[in-house]
Write a structure and sequence with these properties.
- The protein has one domain (25-273).
- Helices cover 74% and strands 3% of the residues.
- The protein has helices spanning 2-13, 26-66, 79-109, 113-117, 124-150, 164-183, 189-205, 217-223, 227-240, 245-273; strands at 69-72, 75-78.
- Helix 2 (26-66) runs antiparallel to helix 3 (79-109), helix 5 (124-150) runs antiparallel to helix 10 and helix 9 (227-240) packs across helix 10 (245-273).
């Protein structure tokens, strides 16, 4: 049953643009991710819901007692309302990046799952979009869950904050596509620690807990190049109702990340397996 179906799908792609890298079987990758989630990975995924809530309680309502309000531009807001959007953006990043790095590395180098997938009618772009799509679902679920926590607490200052959820999906897409591209070059679990070496400084210095204007100019320039800075500015602007052209530039930053990540991931998987 399945073999004739796979052959039929492959034959339908003959002569079409990108036939060597894409077969249109991304849903099968998502189905596999859901089966794995139900059987073994659910605890890892669920833990991602808890982490930003703990940060919010610890910093927003802990430090928030010592620093009830903070000034952003000419506006004074609650400290908890300042960090909540940053935690939402960071949650989307973490969910996507861990799914597209540790998870992908294990499948690539130990389980050798991709070897089997690419021996079928699937192409490298199917694998890339399937894995990234699952990471997006994880980032989307984190964003929805965290929004369900902060909205009743009055930490979303504007109705524009509803757009923070699709913004979080865009953020997750950018990090997942680039994360998978980088992971395809990793040779050991120790090398994956390089990714953590970048994630932690980004989290601490990208304006998560205080405005980056406290830094000297040279450091502000560096911080503004970091993707998490753009993610936080995008989500925070929506949650606070600060709608301007700067939000579009932040969104375009992630569109570029997505394009670059997909191109490099597809080429790398093609080079590794389609010989």
């Amino acid at each position: 049953m399945f073999i004739p179906m796979a052959v039929a799908i492959a034959e339908k792609r003959v002569g079409k643009l990108g036939e060597r890298v894409y077969s249109g079987r991304v849903p099968q990758l998502l189905e596999r991710g859901f089966i794995a989630f139900k059987s073994s990975t659910y605890m890892i995924v669920i833990s991602g819901f808890v982490e930003p809530v703990l940060y919010l309680l610890s910093f927003g309502y802990g430090i928030g007692k010592l620093l009830p309000t903070i000034t952003v531009g000419s506006e004074t807001i609650k400290y908890a309302a300042f960090i909540a959007p940053a935690l939402l953006a960071t949650s989307a990043m973490n969910g996507a990046i861990y799914d597209s790095t540790m998870n992908v590395f294990f499948k690539l180098n130990h389980d050798r799952i991709y070897h089997g997938m690419l021996a079928t009618s699937m192409g490298p772009l199917d694998v890339a979009l399937g894995e990234i799509g699952w990471a997006l679902l994880r980032g989307f679920s984190y964003a929805c869950a965290f929004m369900a926590v902060i909205a009743p607490l009055g930490l979303v200052e504007s109705v524009w904050g509803l757009l923070a959820i699709p913004a979080a999906v865009l953020i997750a897409f950018g990090f997942a596509s680039c994360g998978m591209a980088v992971t395809s070059y990793m040779k050991s679990f120790q090398q994956l620690e390089i990714i953590n070496m970048f994630l932690l400084p980004m989290f601490l210095f990208s304006g998560s807990f205080y405005p980056i204007t406290v830094f000297p100019q040279w450091l502000q320039f560096t911080v503004n190049l970091m993707p998490l800075t753009h993610a936080i500015n995008l989500v925070r602007g929506l949650c606070l109702g600060h709608i301007n052209m700067a939000l579009l530039s932040h969104a375009l930053y992630f569109v570029v990340m997505i394009i670059i990540g997909l191109i490099f991931t597809t080429k790398r998987l093609n080079a590794l397996f389609m010989k």
